[in-house]
Every structure is written in C-alpha cells, then in structure tokens.
Design goal:
Belongs to the PMEI family. By secondary structure, this protein is mainly α. Helix content is 81%, strand content 0%. Bound molecules: 2-acetamido-2-deoxy-beta-D-glucopyranose (NAG) (4 copies).
Length: 201
C-alpha cells in the first residue's frame, strides 16, 4: 500500500496543481475582456455583449492580452479579417452572377458592386488605421475606423432603397458594424487616457 499510495497522491497533486495553473492563468485577461465588453455594450446599444465576448475570445492571443491596448489591436485585426473576407465573398457573388441561371436582379447587382467598392476602400483604410494605432495616433485611427463603420451601413442601406429586396450581406454588415464599434470604443478610451496624461504634465 505504502509506496503506491504515495505515488498516486503525488500524481493527483501534480494534476491538481497543473490544472489549477492552467485555469488560473487566463483569469485576469478574461476579466479584462468581460469588463471591456460590459462597458461597451452598456454605452452602445448597437453592440451585443455576447458578440463582443465571442469575438474577442476567438483570438488565441487575447488570452495573453493584459492591456486594453493589446485588446484594441486584436479587435482591429478581427475587423480587418472580417472586411477582407466579405470583400472576397462579394466578388464571388458577382462572379456567380455571370452564370445566366443565377443572374441577380440588375438592382441587386448594382448594390453588390457598390458594396465591393466601399469594402475595398475599407480594407485600405483599416491598413492605415493599424499603422496609426501602433503609433498611438488614436485620433487619426478614430477617423479611419469611423469610415469603416459607415461602409457597413452604406452597403446595407443600398439594398434597403428598394422594397422587397433582401440584402444578402446583412449579417456581414452587422458583424463589421459591431466590430468597428468595439474598436472605436477602445480607441476612444485610449485617446482619453492619453489626453488625461498630457493634461497632468
Ligand atoms: C469599465 O467601467 C468601469 C466603471 O465605469 C470602470 O471602473 C472600468 O475601469 C472600466 N473597464 C474598462 C476595461 O474599460
Ligand atoms: C446604432 O445604430 C444606428 C443605426 O446605424 C445609429 O443610428 C445609432 O446612432 C447607433 N446608436 C449608437 C448608440 O451608436
Ligand atoms: C466576423 O467576425 C465575427 C465576430 O468575430 C465572426 O463571428 C464572423 O464569423 C466573422 N465573419 C467572417 C466572414 O470572418
Ligand atoms: C445586428 O444584429 C443584432 C442581432 O440580430 C441586432 O440586435 C442589432 O440591432 C443589429 N445591429 C445593426 C446595426 O443592424
């Protein structure tokens, strides 16, 4: 009984300790994400708490992001990924349109072409926004990401101009809208913090 029991005890202790450290480590970061998402969803009724949590936690890097600054960069990169993917998706829809049997209504095709344009611009804008963000030019970054949020509403509104037309991009536009709003909220927090610091000097 003796040696075997103590070996077993030792193994259990090791397992407990390692699972404890695995469970305990990401905690502060989860708190940062939860607190940030709670604050955002409370101040902006267009951002859902669940969407915010799911998005920010979907990035493996977010688990080691201890600062709002890192979380902000993650949110902008998620946005970039979304916008890039949506642009490709619109291109594919337009390509399918060449197939006669699947031809869209000319109005829908026109809307899709407009969306392709605004999303292409948005991609370039986000790229510049990331540079601004990294250089802590939060004011400039705010201007750029505000235009990305406009891209999502411009695209969606196009389809809504005609009764009976259903936008094939509603979910994607909504995702882009919410991700931009999350990024903008974080940028404005960081900007306010910097301004406060400057005021102290
Ligand atoms: C969230 O809001 C609370 C209350 O205003 C504030 O104390 C906290 O610092 C905020 N947290 C983040 C991450 O913005
Ligand atoms: C929510 O979105 C709508 C539609 O884009 C906009 O008019 C409104 O100002 C937004 N609300 C907030 C709190 O940002
Ligand atoms: C866009 O981001 C949202 C939230 O992170 C995610 O659920 C969705 O799958 C993304 N969409 C694309 C097309 O990448
Ligand atoms: C995005 O979708 C959510 C859930 O369907 C909805 O509550 C929210 O109002 C939508 N936001 C916009 C800007 O359309």
């Amino acid at each position: 009984m003796g040696p075997q029991t103590s070996l077993l005890t030792l193994i259990i202790i090791v397992i407990l300790l390692s699972s404890y450290s695995i469970l305990a480590k990401p905690k502060p970061n989860h708190n940062l994400i939860q607190q940030t998402c709670k604050n955002i969803s409370e101040s902006d009724s267009n951002v859902s708490y669940k969407f915010c949590i799911d998005s920010l936690q979907s990035d493996p890097q977010s688990h080691c992001s201890k600062t709002l600054e890192k979380l902000g960069l993650i949110s902008i990169k998620l946005l970039r990924h979304n916008v890039t993917d949506t642009r490709v998706h619109i291109k594919e829809l337009l390509k399918k349109n060449k197939d006669k049997k699947k031809k869209f209504d000319p109005f829908v095709k026109e809307c899709l072409s407009d969306c392709l344009e605004v999303y292409s611009d948005a991609m370039a804008t986000i790229k510049e926004g990331i540079k601004d963000y990294k250089a802590k030019r939060y004011g400039d970054c705010n201007v750029k990401l505000s235009s990305v949020i406009d891209a999502s509403t411009t695209c969606e509104d196009g389809f809504n101009q005609r009764n009976g037309v259903v936008s094939p991009l509603t979910k994607r536009n909504n995702d882009t809208f919410q991700l931009s709003a999350i990024s903008l909220w974080i940028i404005n927090m960081l900007n306010n913090k910097d301004n406060l610091k400057e005021g102290e000097l």
